[in-house]
Amino acid sequence: MKSAVYRGVGKLSMEYKPIPKAGLNEVVIRTTSTTVCGTDIHILHGEHWVEDGRIMGHEHVGIVHEVGEGLEGITVGDRVMCSSNTPCGTCFYCQKGMAAQCVGPDGKQGPGGWILGNTIEGTHAEYFKMPYPNYNLTKIPDDVSDEEVLMICDIGSTGIAAAEKANIQIGDVVVVYACGPVGLCAIAGARLKGAGLIIGVDADPARMEIAKKMGADIVLNFKTINVIEEIFRLTDGRGADVAIEALGKQETFENCLRSIRRGGTVSSVGIYSGHLHIPIETFAGGMGDHKIVTTLCPGGRERMLQLIQLVKTHRITLESMVTHRYHFDDILEAYDTFEHQKDGVIKTMINF
Amino acid sequence: MKSAVYRGVGKLSMEYKPIPKAGLNEVVIRTTSTTVCGTDIHILHGEHWVEDGRIMGHEHVGIVHEVGEGLEGITVGDRVMCSSNTPCGTCFYCQKGMAAQCVGPDGKQGPGGWILGNTIEGTHAEYFKMPYPNYNLTKIPDDVSDEEVLMICDIGSTGIAAAEKANIQIGDVVVVYACGPVGLCAIAGARLKGAGLIIGVDADPARMEIAKKMGADIVLNFKTINVIEEIFRLTDGRGADVAIEALGKQETFENCLRSIRRGGTVSSVGIYSGHLHIPIETFAGGMGDHKIVTTLCPGGRERMLQLIQLVKTHRITLESMVTHRYHFDDILEAYDTFEHQKDGVIKTMINF
Amino acid sequence: MKSAVYRGVGKLSMEYKPIPKAGLNEVVIRTTSTTVCGTDIHILHGEHWVEDGRIMGHEHVGIVHEVGEGLEGITVGDRVMCSSNTPCGTCFYCQKGMAAQCVGPDGKQGPGGWILGNTIEGTHAEYFKMPYPNYNLTKIPDDVSDEEVLMICDIGSTGIAAAEKANIQIGDVVVVYACGPVGLCAIAGARLKGAGLIIGVDADPARMEIAKKMGADIVLNFKTINVIEEIFRLTDGRGADVAIEALGKQETFENCLRSIRRGGTVSSVGIYSGHLHIPIETFAGGMGDHKIVTTLCPGGRERMLQLIQLVKTHRITLESMVTHRYHFDDILEAYDTFEHQKDGVIKTMINF
Amino acid sequence: MKSAVYRGVGKLSMEYKPIPKAGLNEVVIRTTSTTVCGTDIHILHGEHWVEDGRIMGHEHVGIVHEVGEGLEGITVGDRVMCSSNTPCGTCFYCQKGMAAQCVGPDGKQGPGGWILGNTIEGTHAEYFKMPYPNYNLTKIPDDVSDEEVLMICDIGSTGIAAAEKANIQIGDVVVVYACGPVGLCAIAGARLKGAGLIIGVDADPARMEIAKKMGADIVLNFKTINVIEEIFRLTDGRGADVAIEALGKQETFENCLRSIRRGGTVSSVGIYSGHLHIPIETFAGGMGDHKIVTTLCPGGRERMLQLIQLVKTHRITLESMVTHRYHFDDILEAYDTFEHQKDGVIKTMINF
């Protein structure tokens, strides 16, 4: 099968690999759609290590190709998906309601439940094995398109979780730094949670535009305005109730802290590659009842079905983030476009 | 001042009473808008006792007419409102985060923090005293109309609280029995909380229509369909995650219990005038991890501001429930229309 | 193997059955300790239906006897246990954090995750199969005795969960109706949750005595005192914050409602065999911000380990409830003693 | 009246000031007990600015000396106290359930609700005015001594809140850095919340000893053991569920992060005087579902009564921290002892 394979930092090649075989309790999926995600770029840049030869990719839709022994209720031909984070269902974390931190049945996997396109072969190939199908395999209703659900695998589940973990109350003022794919989903999440004023922060006009479509009431251009001052102006000097970090940089993390009121929450879903710094004046010397929470993409079949329900009733329309479409044969070009943020790209969709 | 006065069960009369005077820590409001609420009808029917001669009414908007000694930051001419539930801010319940159950500074008021138009004179008069203004007086922003905020005093705050107390998770299936004013606000609340499928239940075509405008995906007519069966059909045999009781009858309370899945929640904001019955088969013999929660209208300035924020960004449009408008001189007619549910009335607005 | 077998209402017989064989993903346990639990008596009385010929029993400690294919990390000879409630780990309820309501991988089991000694053979036999061992099999540390952990399988987990689900805050006043085994564990749970005043209610002197050992500050004898009046006297006329129903009768359910303050919680772990009635005056007409929650025994390996941790540091000493010990050969006598509450029995322990 | 007065960094003098007079809604208390608290030392060291001439002190018990107009239910001679944090009851924060961050009725006070001995005269004097008595004045039951309740004003409420805000679940492993007065109260709080293993960290033998009395199962001496390694050893390599920072230093903050598992919580009640640093390796690059929460002392009458309930039933025995007693005339000596941690001092009690 054709596969996009990681060959060391900055190197990606299209290669042929054998189609995987479904063993005991295993299922093989024929990929019908996938994406290039920010995490794939992190890998390509060497910011997240994967083994040489790894097939990357985790957002996907597919068709069941082969069902191994021991599995019931799964049929060849079923249109299915799973989250990028594929919990085992039995480990400490899975039993304790923190399945995103799954360490596998033997406790040695991870850390963190994201293995697809990371420690095992991913979805940038014509076929892939879905981990722990009893927990993760999700049948997609006929009245929902690939495009509509493709991004709930990862950025949708993650961005919306940023809003959920922040414990947004209806009417809250929420600031989202920044309006990349995860930030846009966090905006959608803030809207779902009933935020009363949603403020996006970015400088890219295309992203600022789509941020409004996803639910932002206001989008501030940090190149032309003092964002912190504006947030305090908009909140009568008090600060936002919640700030969401969706970039993974010290600057945005720090601005989140500067944006919130006493008792406010910074909800972070950015992936950081360096140390973080909390300036004393942003933290009230520890006396501000501040909260900082971080979240890894929640997965599992029921998480996917929860989000699919929102797709079905048009509460979320993540497909509006797709700016570019490619055939899988051209996935290296899709990588290039996304990596270098060419042509106003927000999200690419890869078809097979 | 002209006042609509309760004169015993079924009797209401327009009378003249003296304009109240603002004493220490008191403020007098000139009423500019009010409504007839379901609770007023309960009083009229003798289902909730108030003293003979009481001015009823609690949903309102007004203008500060007189400010007593001891109050700062309140100016004659301010356009203001408060909730129908007016917590004192200092009692056990207020300090414990259950201000709706306020018993007053001396612990003897109530029970329950609703006193306006109940144990003290209400808003069906040209002027009224607002209780505990430091906690309750809420200035209304200029860009928000009377009509837009009028119903957050009571039915808006209550109905939305039904959704909040139910702890609706994004994507949840929520059923609302029935689609009167509070039920309609509960539908709006379910939408605010991110419900993935909202099912209204009623039989009145006008209410069914407006239920959709307020956010219901489906409205079931209990006269033409087996509602419980349909809910189980819509949820693949599992039942709803949450059922909201917004009528106050055994039948709807029981149907709520019959509608939910194991581990589901019945959130009740109906006002009952009789005993309630839990059929054993609706309760899994106590082993179903069911929850039943009841809620009294949350009040206080910050609750009002929270809801006004939602009005400002058009998250809620409660004014679409206003089907009838009257001048205060005709309030007896408004009562009659609302009491007898004439002419497709949902909510009446009374202007001065 | 010797087995105590249900043979219709009121009938129990000691019979020989074949030792079960461990199939794929299965494990067979040799029982070393078990108990007679209240639920076993419910079965015997025909209040809970099980199939003729069923081996009852669910509280237990044992030794791994045979390990089927597909399981790793489990060794013959391991000293182990599981909860009476044995979630599958993958169904809707398991993924949603309500594993006690597990319906099994195919969604058809249950309802409710208690199958051991109910829909499958139980622990009143020399050997039994443990359901879903990957999720449930719990290795017991050497420094903890059978007796110390035996009752966390069911009544310990259930009673403590009654306190957890009630969301007891430190300092709360908690009333527990009544002081049978589950109620005693609820008292221990209330203590664990930091309740500031724990009031047990019973009339049996032995139970009243042990209630104090388990953590009750006061135990009221309902035969000699007006319990509701006394609770209001002890709480300065306000009522308890939480009342726990641990008997499963209308009378105690109703007394729970009568015991709590506005905004208080009734946490029910009794098993009811009839309809329930909520007198209007106990419910503030639905306006009291009351909560009623019900709980089924939480299971799973991590739940067991959580409770074993409490055993290890002597936070709970459930073994003090054991008043009677029998050899398995005499289990019919143990049933008789427990069923008829002879000889001040609280809890029986059966050894093999 | 005799008063201990701040006269610039490092300077404290005993002076005579006039006894305050009770104005409208004010009450004057005659101090009967007070303490020297860590915050007083921060002030003395110039780490927290107060105005020259300020009377410090906030932990106290006293007798009502004079009651101003407008207050009901308060009588000269009542034995009373309030928290060091004295919410107004009406501001945004008070209404939103975050009263510790009270900004006063005009929104300009603070930030943070601690004003006693900070922006207004404190309790290191024979008399003091209690702020917002309707919200804060707490009558002390006769069967409770000054000594037993003295420290719930501040360190007790704060330390216990550290455990509450960490959302400790029963059975959790909790580490407390370090075992000064607040850390000792956090240990008591962890015990109240049902922690299954409580690990104190300190190097002072007297503190290590009392940490056990307050509820620690183990106390690690950071001078003789690698604390992080030991925590991982004690938790089978997983890390603690919760770490409480009770010192206010980068080192302990960082060690808290290093001590917790994925999905764990750092609950911080230390007061920091410098920037904080989060090493990337302690934070899983933002993907660990970590939480950091900070807490300021919760105040108000109902908070005090909640803690007094725990004193009454001997759930907490904070008086065991009192190692030194002084007459108020010798308060400068008490400061000296506490400031320089002489003579194994943990907590000083000052009598009048």
UniProtKB/TrEMBL annotation, chains A, B, C, D:
Record key words, sorted: Metal-binding, Zinc
Family, similarity comment: Belongs to the zinc-containing alcohol dehydrogenase family.
Domain called Enoyl reductase (ER): residue spans: 8-346
The UniProt record lists the keyword Membrane: no
Superkingdom: Bacteria
Gene3D superfamilies in the cross-refs: Medium-chain alcohol dehydrogenases, catalytic domain (3.90.180.10), NAD(P)-binding Rossmann-like Domain (3.40.50.720)
PANTHER family the record matches: NADP-DEPENDENT ISOPROPANOL DEHYDROGENASE (PTHR42813:SF4), ZINC-TYPE ALCOHOL DEHYDROGENASE-LIKE (PTHR42813)
UniProt protein name: NAD(P)-dependent alcohol dehydrogenase
Cofactor field: Zn(2+)
Record has Magnesium as a keyword: no
MF-aspect GO terms: metal ion binding; oxidoreductase activity
